[in-house]
Amino acid sequence: MILALVVVLAGVVAASGAAGPQPHLCGMDTARGAVPSNYVVDVCIDASRVYIRNTLKVPLRFGTTGALSNPTRYAISTSLAAAVTRREYPDALSVMPGDVLTLNLGTGAATLFVADTSEARYYLLTETVISWIPVVGPVVGLVSEISDDFDSYARCSAGKGTLTRL
């Protein structure tokens, strides 16, 4: 009946200063388990579920033992790096920065822990490559400008012969 939270992560900076127990994520029920005050991400435990919000600037993959089941990931982060990393690491226990993970909490003992950070390497590399290719803004502007040019051409050439349109 007790949920133990284990952290095996060092050197990762939190995006917000407050991590650990976060009763605003759910109706906290400490009878089911406790969240260490220095836990690396936001966690809330109620009577039947565990809620985790990744407040770090890097993705994490969680592991579980015991009576935790049915992981459901809520993709909050809409960055290109997060989308590409989710595609490469589709596991529901892989959580991007800002994302929320929920797990059903059974009647037996359970443990939730940070299992791996290989997604972080991929995510940070993707962010770096994207920053070197500043195409999103300029491409959107270019596409809009070309679209406007086609509209102008269509208006100008309406009703004219083939030679006039060239």
Secondary structure: elements and pairs:
Layout: E1 3-6, E2 20-21, E3 42-45, E4 49-53, E5 60-74, H1 80-88, E6 94-95, E7 100-116, H2 118-132, H3 136-157, H4 162-165
Parallel strand pairs: 1-7, 2-3
Antiparallel strand pairs: 3-4, 4-7, 5-6, 5-7
Helix pairs in contact: 1-2
Helix content: 25-40%
Total strand count, please? 7
> Outline, from the CA principal axes?
elongated
What Rg is obtained from the alpha carbons, in whole angstroms?
24 Å
- Quaternary state of this entry equals single chain
**What's the helix-strand series?**
EEEEEHEEHHH
- Specify the biggest β-sheet: 7 strands, mixed
Count the DSSP helices.
4
Structural class: alpha/beta
Model regions low in confidence, pLDDT < 50 over at least 5 residues? 1-18
Roughly what is the average pLDDT, rounded to an integer?
A: 75
In terms of DSSP E residues, the strand content is 25-35%
CA(first)-CA(last) distance:
78 Å
